[in-house]
């Protein structure tokens, strides 16, 4: 039997006094790849941030369960240690901390174990080669001076190094050229196994072409209005979101 990693039940949330999520229900099991799509302002990124415990948002009702435990009130670092990972739309630049040191500290915090420098360096270099990241970037400050594509690859590098139980990838393919999308898509495919899961938030479908997508969810007005298998991607490419959202309403 597949293990239920994430279960969101009737989640309602707001920011600055404005309601954004209006009763979201979602279940993600180990081994699955889910895709969340929808028009701008639907609440997709908000949902990702709330799952990670972003304090800018207020959960008004509902609950978030991870591996059967209620994490609705947990802080972001506690959720990350459980195995939740979020790749941000816009990665922060952190002067003074190199990519290598950041990765080593993050992995130690996640695993609770001491991370040997030599082993970390070897693993990091191997993953960077796979993602076609220039090796010298390991000694550069995190995301400082990186292009948009380099920042996106660095987010995926973090996913590979940490190997979380659930990876939420928010617009990871945004602004990337075709070659970069293929590299990242391959990395996601290699990461995914029977013990973890992926939730991809995207507006476009290029990154999905070579991925084994199990479920596609369409979000509008702060709720999931339709869920189907991967064939829904073809419908979106042909007709856009308008017909789907209109029929659901």
Topology:
Layout (H helix, E strand, L loop, with lengths): L3 E12 L2 E12 L3 E5 L6 H8 L6 E9 L2 E2 L5 H7 L1 E4 L6 E5 H13 L5 H14 L10 E2 L5 H15 L3 E5 L7 H14 L5 E5 L13 E6 L2 E6 L2 H9 L2 H7 L1
Helix pairs in contact: 5-6
Word description of this protein:
- The chain is an alpha/beta fold and 249 residues long.
- It has eight helices and twelve strands.
- The chain has helices at residues 44-51, 76-82, 99-111, 117-130, 148-162, 178-191, 231-239, 242-248; strands at 4-15, 18-29, 33-37, 58-66, 69-70, 84-87, 94-98, 141-142, 166-170, 197-201, 215-220, 223-228.
- It has a six-stranded mixed β-sheet, sandwiched between helices. Strands 2-1-4-5 form a four-stranded antiparallel β-sheet, covered by helices on one side. The chain has a two-stranded antiparallel ribbon with strand order 7-8.
- It is globular, with a radius of gyration of 18 Å.
- The two termini are 34 Å apart.
